[in-house]
Request: fold
Amino acid sequence: QFPFGRRLPCDIYWHGVSFHDNNIFSGQVNKFPGMMETVRKITLSRAMRTMQDLFPLEYNFYPRSWILPEELPLFVAEVRVMKDSDPSWKPTFIVKPDGGCQGDGIYLIKDPGDIRLTGSIQSRPAVVQEYICKPLLVDKLKFDIRLYVLLKSLEPLEIYIAKDGLSRFCTEPYQEPTLKNLHQVFMHLTNYSLNIHSENFIHSDSVNTGSKRTFSSILCRLSSRGADVKKLWSDIISLVIKTIIALTPELKVYYQSDIPAGKPGPTCFQILGFDILLMKNLKPMLLEVNANPSMRIEHEQELSPGVFENVPSPVDEEVKVAVIRDTLRLVDPQKKKRKDPQMSFKVPSKPTLSMILCHRCPGLEHVPESGESRPEAAGARSPEAALPSLCLKQVFPKYSKQFNYLRLVDRVAALFIRFLGVRGTTKLGPTGFRTFIRNCKLSNSSFSMAAVDILYIDITRRWNSMGIDHKESGMCLQAFVEAFFCLAQRKYKSVPLHEQVLSLLQLCECHLAALDEKRLLWGCG
Ligand code: ADP
Reply:
């Protein structure tokens, strides 16, 4: 606890909203700087688009999206081309205001001309997205999955996924979208906050019935119908890792700005809520990522007209308590010390989190499931032994070999951060960009420094006119990524984009390594 006036630092800070809730200089904070900005609908769509440009097949789990208002003409033109090439294509689109949540302001359209342009689009940008028309139905109802993911560390990247999640159901039987049913939110939108107002909403004491169920209960049902549940889980794990790989470049820029390397500062971890929709063919599709997923384990019930009471929700409790408990176990600073051989002879002076968790939750002292590995148990007599096996499964670095080839933008971001220069900034100035070009030896007779300046001005002006962040002037990471792709395309023609980018990265990294070596030698000499 951090009572007002406390001077001593804490091991763990549990902020309600963002990293900046308090000024923290040590310990661990449960939020990353910039996470809320990074997972907003528009920023997420941009990050996914960049990855889709590089790896179209690997990133086909995110619906095709356009950003409004700036990409409205592109949206109209692309839909026209697709319709012309396939007249049987009868798409539906979903328009979602940026920064919205709980289904707020969302509507479906059949034609780009139906976008509501009056007033709000200009003042409130939005994402328009292909609507997934054929979701998997259970009891004739559409549902989505809320999965909890722990981003335990950014550098090195460590990701954990909760073994169970929530399934949130619509409350009207699903029909494919038609002009007649487009506005029926209880049929098309799975948000709990909307469906709770339907008279068909069922609060249930059981985890496998009602309008909110555990994901494991759905998996059991699918498995009994012969579905390949193992493949589904592995697709979900892959979706989560790829999404986080798309988000890390931006997060690293925020991180170095708020917690500069070499300065004392906290480390961060964060529980994220992934919203996933299963298609009829069981392919998982990402809808969105929530930086502050609700951890409530109660719901409001209307006892009599106008009289509400908070009552426990067994489904929420089953899933969420385990996620928070195990997040605390994984970031337990005392456990780190126990693991460290140099510290192992020291008896912890403070109670460990495991001790506290056991003490607070006596019901947890049950025998672990047979066959479950207990990698975190520090020994038979450890307080960990009294806790259930971890519900959080490590997926990265465990599966890093399979996914590391996707981390190209991460490497572009490392170049960007190297040339940022001033500490605490997130934007690259013209001098920094010129130094990058010079140090990586990218200018030559056919690409003069004057052309470099024009490239910088063109791209930076366009990104800044999109009005995302007026606080600082200069080139943001996404603009730098665009410039980098542009340079790669110029230099390495007629190979796929990811190969062009990889070649340019290798060239830049090679020149910079040589430069670092030279500087080291000069330093010694
Ligand atoms: P919010 O943050 O407002 O909840 P979401 O992106 O989660 O916004 O969308 C709200 C709901 O709309 C989702 O829970 C889902 O049921 C539905 N939805 C969103 N995007 C799509 C899509 N591309 N295809 C089908 N349904 C979607």
Observations:
- The mean pLDDT is 87.
- Residues 229-258 form the longest helix (30 residues).
